[in-house]
Structures are given as structure tokens and as C-alpha cells.
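#lab-general

N.A. 3:47 PM
ok so I finally got the sequence cleaned up, no stray characters, all 369 residues accounted for. can someone with queue access submit it? mine expired

B.Y. 3:52 PM
send it over

N.A. 3:53 PM
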Amino acid sequence: MFLLKTTSELSVQSKNGLAFGLKYPNNFYFRFNGNIYTVIVNPKFVLSLIVLFAGIFLVQLLRQPVDKVIYVQAPVAVNYGAQQQPTIDQFIEDFDLETLPSTPSDVQETSVVPVQFVNNNYADYKTAKLDKANTTIDKFIIERQLIVTDFLIEHKVSRVDQLSNQKLLVLNKEINDKFRKLVLDQMSVPPHVYAFFTSTVPLQKVETALMEQAKYHVPASITLAQAALETGYGKRVVGNNYFGVKDKSKKTKPITTTEYYTLEEYKMNKNIVVSSSKIKKGGRVLYKCTVKDSFAQYQTPWESFRAHSVFLNKQKRYAPLFTQGRDYKAWANMIGSTKYGGVGYATSPLYGELLKKIIQRYHLYLLDY
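B.Y. 4:20 PM
back already:
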């Protein structure tokens, strides 16, 4: 690099290769393979850039640190109603706090709440809400909401599906423990049903269903009710298949099951029908058939739960289910036989009603959040 008086000095001082030269105030030269190139730079422009970057650096250096406001989903308080999400205004009023002017306009009518509002009052809020619980079910609802909110705040995320798998495992275990103590333990539950929902062998089904809910948005109540219905609460599990998923390749050994066919379906599946009888359901004539069919097999029970979630997500005919959110009644009504307006997971005309009865009897809907 050379400070030049004339351009010829660049040639004299460096005859070969690459060389650079600066002639004050605004001429920049460089020599490459014997040719000299000139670049004219406005010194005022350069000075302006230096001042600008220096100013930005000073502002960043002197600026006071600002607490980050993290937005999380507000818990559903009992006084809002079990099926109703509070608006941000309701939630802030519940805390007796003022809304910051900087609250984004697009969350004013949602259940999203800035954590900065609640830090000082959160402990009092927990105590006050738990004191309002009249039943153990009310208490579970509040406990579940508080557990979820604590996790969202602690890990600085706004939705449970943004938590890592490890964090979700911890969260799901806490919710499951509360569900067992405050719901199942307070009911008269048949021993085999209690074991189905609480045993850790071969896997913890409630925690697994909660994980599938977070990852694949299938309501935990639907997953558990289907597993219970398809296996008789774990009494009929073949090949670790908890959801009656068929093996389209027909490679597995056929087993006996019951299907409900129309006349056309009966004719199409006559080769697998062992016996049949005509019945009337909902004003329609159906064939109640004992059939031998092939069902999918899995290495582990967990693989069956995950395959069920993926199956519902990947098959286009089940897409309407995911427009229903966590509404277990809508899912149950829609998941059944196509003969009655369902998406066709099962052929039984009673499938949806049976799912709802299981969910309501054991309060599985409390796990949907």
C-alpha cells in the first residue's frame, strides 16, 4: 500500500503483481498485471458512514437493557367456563393489571398474555384460583393450566409444541400424575380400566397420548378412547396394534373381527366374511359380519401410537378432523362410518358414540388442551 504524489509512482514502486495506492483526498489506485485502475471516492460519504456506525455503536453501548416480553397462552380459569378461552382483556382484568400500550394489536382479542404482566402477581393468582375450586375436577383443570403456563414461561415459548421432547416428557408426566390423583383416584374405576390408564407396562398411555397431542394435534382423549375401544382396555392387543389399523399388504396372519357393511360392501368383501346377519341401524339395513382380516403389527406399543397419529395426519380423508381443534365430540362424531357422514375410520355405526361414552365416563376430555 503506497501514499502517492502522482500515479506514475505506483508503476515505479511496484512493477509486477498487484499493488494499491492512495492519493489524498479521494483517489484510490490499484495496479494489476501492468494496468493501473482508478477509483474516485467521495470523502464526505466515507466520513458520513464512519459517523453513522460510530453513532450506532454508542447507542447500543449506552442503552439500558430492556426486559423481553414473552407472550404465552393464558390458562383457562374455571370462572370463564370449561370450554371457553379467556380474551386478553378478561385475563388482565383477572389479575387487576393495566395493559401496556405496546401490546400488539393482533393479540387483543386472543388468549395470548404477555408474561411481563403477570410476574409479580402469579403466586397470588395460583392460590386464589385453587381456592375457588369446588371439586377435584375443577382443581385438576386449574392445576393443569398452571403447570402448562409455568412451563411456557420458564422455557420462553408460546405453545407446548415448541417445547423440546425432553421438556414435553416432564410436562406430560406432571399432568398425568395430577390426572390420576385428582380424577381417576376419586372415581369408581374397574381395575382393568384403571390399569389400562395408569400402568407403565408396556407404556404409559396417558403420557404417550399427551405427546401425540402436542406433536400431531390429535386430541389425547380421542387417542386414549380409540385405544381402549379397539383393544377392550388392553385385553385384545395383537402385534402391539392398539388402533385396529389394517395391513393392506395382507402379509400378517388374519384375525377375527366384526365389520358393518352395506350390501355393496358385503359383496366386495365376501371373500373374508365368515358369517353375517342383517340388522337395522339408523333407518339403514346393514350386514353385521364376522370377518378374518389382516392387521398391522408393530415392534413396540409406542410405534403403534405414533403410527396412529401419522396415519390420521397423512391420509387426506381424515383432514376434516383437524378442523375441529380439541373438540372431542366433533372428532368422535366425524371419525366414524361413512354411512353416517363420517370419514370412515371404522365401519360400526356406533363407533363415535362409544368413543364419547368412554371419554365422558373417565373424564378424558380434561386432557385436551
